[in-house]
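Much of what follows relies on a compact textual record of a protein's fold. A record is reproduced here so that you can trace the correspondence yourselves:

. . .
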Amino acid sequence: MKPPDIPEDEPLRLDTLRSLTILDTPPEERFDRLTRMANRLFDVPIALVSLVDENRQWFKSCVGLDVSETPRSVSFCGHAILGDRIFIIEDATQDPRFADNPLVVGEPHVRFYAGCPLRDVEGHKLGTLCIIDREPRTLSGEDCDILEDLAAMVERELAAMQLATIDELTKIANRRGFLMVAQSSLRLCQREDIPAALVFFDLDDFKKINDRFGHQEGDLALVNFADQMTKTFRDSDMIARLGGDEFVVLLTNSAMEEAEDVVARFTAALDAHNNQADSGYDIRFSHGVVAYDPQKHKSVADLLADGDTLMYQIKQAKR
């Protein structure tokens, strides 16, 4: 058995995949509809929308299998994303790369496989739309065209997710939008040796605002917090609502001391807003500031994790 090679764009490919926040999410009809179509059109027992993560292939949509993922090392899809066209194995038992593969010698007893790579809007291959049979078979040219058409429909759904980057309530970037843009910013900072810092915010006692004043007022507090962020931070800084009452800002060309200075100005601006609003509560926050270290932070997710940890420690100390 030959494990699949790693694509040259693997770091960017994984960053994009994770920025979609699609992994380990429930089934969705827009994807299930397409695997059902593949199942019927090709008369195969198995059809999948498979996304290739670092160590596994995970099935966003699955017809004919009872599992949601398999190791990447034994995946056919890991091989499929290495090429630009449909990857076809007519009889896996006759192919030295797969003849002793656990998925061939055991369940689901793969014989035929055809997987069309799924690309994001920048061309990174995130996974495949694939069809599998337990008997050897071939695909005609027309069959390949149909599979590519179905894959293009899956790609459009993934693109819609990728482009949905704005938080509807606060009108600033959401988690997906932040991950996409921030990762590009960090690559620039690393290449040009530019300092950067991340500030992770979490509102204090936000639940009490919801409980005492209602969720509509809680939503207004989130909007006001985002507005103060927009007014205080630079246009070049990337601000976002990660979800709930968690916010973040990535300051490029800023060292730790400069980031702390900006947070101090933001605190003063928020205090002024609280005094003027006289809403019966104050919007307060805990925060963690982390300097970007390319050796330590291989991705924006690593930077976020450190910021979250530091913020949580500070919040706990307040209690």
